[in-house]
Write a structure and sequence with these properties.
8-stranded parallel beta sheet, 10 helices, 21 strands, 26% strand
Length: 439
């Protein structure tokens, strides 16, 4: 904290000194609520659970390994995308996905070619019944690493993919075989899976259900609580946040997302009678998203339910608010454009990807010239921020411009994230806050 305060003071002194004696534009921005479908936060519902009744920016997809690799080395990724990613409820939405082998009550997701290599299976009756494989079989371990590598080759650079859950192991891909823990993967297998995912997805955020096996080690790993908020911190030694604290990963939220599913079919309970518990657990756990079962699947006109939903959407993940801005009124062409911002992240988590923060200069005819700043938006963790942004002007023609700001979604290549500050919203998505002259 002392280092942060010192940095803020030095930055403010630097900006004051740099702009001293210059014709400076200063402004204050009033607060406003950002849209409820902000990117990479909020609800992440199923696509096929019927009508979705609240704004959302992500969808959640399950798929079995057997369907994606029915023949060894032959992958059906394109067919999956054509069948499931094009669902009307998924249009324009980022994707979270989990691959499974064992989903109780559903057909086994274990590839037949893997069974033909001698991988044993066990039937079980709990949770409606299913089949679990021997996760520690040598052929299973080799196949897991190879399949994860193929997943990464397809999706690591796909800008539509938001977050990826490790899946593959345990019932529902949830990294447990309760109440038969002896059937779960050992530490060697879990290490193979975690390491394979990290190698295959260097540019994506990865999430595990529990800090179990080797998943209890990495400080870069995100997590998902699939019984939120019932088991988030329920006073037991197996509660979600308790497990994270014991493994030393309760601070992982600072670099990787925390999310998870609301207790299925209990949205009214957790959004009405027990809403205080829900909000506390969301804040304590630094949750960024909830799904696939979530309040957005409930059709209701209850004002309390909808009001609590709106509050959760604002509070989870990031919520960036610019309070004041300062920049030179006139900038010479080729001279760096410097913009000093004071604001705050009023959410409970950072933004987890280095999306480009750009400035838009809009002339009187409506033509837009953009310039990329040097800001890494991941630095804006919860609390106040004081930031000096610098952007080049070499390719900006001389003239007077309206000045806007935007955070660019690499999938749509357009401004997507909005600041919760009152600014004019340009039709192209830029938030306009000032004027500037390039000479």
């Amino acid at each position: 904290m002392k280092a942060i305060c010192t940095f803020s003071f030095v930055l403010l002194l630097f900006v004051t000194t740099t702009l001293q004696g210059q014709d400076v534009v200063k402004g204050n921005l009033l607060p406003r609520n950002a849209p409820y479908d902000q990117p990479l936060k909020g609800w992440a519902p199923y696509t096929n659970a019927g009508t979705i009744h609240q704004p959302y920016s992500m969808v959640f997809l399950y798929k079995s390994w057997k369907e994606l690799e029915p023949v060894e080395g032959e992958y059906k990724f394109e067919q999956w995308e054509q069948a499931d990613w094009t669902h009307p409820n998924a249009k324009g939405k980022h994707v979270i996905f989990r691959i499974y082998m064992d989903y109780p009550t559903k057909e086994s997701g274990i590839p037949n070619w893997l069974l033909a290599k001698g991988v044993e299976t066990r039937k079980y009756d709990q949770h409606g019944g299913g089949i679990t494989p021997n996760y520690n079989h040598p052929e299973m371990r080799k196949a897991l690493a190879k399949f994860i590598s193929a997943l990464g080759a397809r999706y690591n650079s796909n800008p539509r993919v938001a977050f990826i859950q490790l899946g593959l192991l345990g019932h529902w891909g949830e990294w447990h075989t309760y109440p038969q823990p002896e059937l779960f993967a050992d530490n060697t297998t879990t290490k193979i899976v975690v390491d394979a995912y990290r190698k295959a997805f260097p540019n994506k955020m990865l999430m595990a259900r529990y800090p179990r096996g080797y998943a209890s080690v990495p400080k870069w790993l995100g997590f998902h609580d699939d019984m939120f908020p019932a088991d988030t911190q329920n006073g037991t030694d197996w509660a979600f946040l308790t497990k994270l604290k014991v493994s030393g990963q309760d601070k992982n939220w600072a670099v990787a997302p925390i999310g998870g599913e609301m207790e299925p079919f209990q949205a009214e309970k957790w959004m009405l009678q027990e809403y205080g518990v829900t909000l506390k657990n969301l804040l304590d756990g630094h949750f960024s998203w909830i799904g696939p079962y979530c309040p957005a699947l409930i059709e209701t006109q209850d004002k309390e339910f909808l009001g609590n939903s709106a509050e959760l959407l604002r509070r989870m993940g990031y919520d960036f608010r610019i309070l004041t801005y300062q920049h030179k009124r006139v900038v010479s062409q080729g001279e760096p454009l410097q913009l000093f911002l004071i604001g705050a992240n009023h959410g409970v988590a950072p933004f987890y990807y280095p999306w480009s923060v750009e400035l838009a200069l809009i002339d009187a005819s409506g033509k837009i010239v953009t310039t990329k700043t040097d800001l890494d938006i991941r630095r804006w963790r919860p609390g106040e921020f004081r930031t000096l942004l610098t952007a080049p002007t070499a390719n900006i023609p001389a003239g007077k411009y309206r000045l806007g700001i935007g955070v660019i979604d690499p999938w749509s290549k357009k401004p997507r994230l909005q600041f919760s500050s009152k600014m004019d919203l340009h039709e192209a998505g830029w938030q306009v806050f000032s004027e500037i002259t390039i000479q």
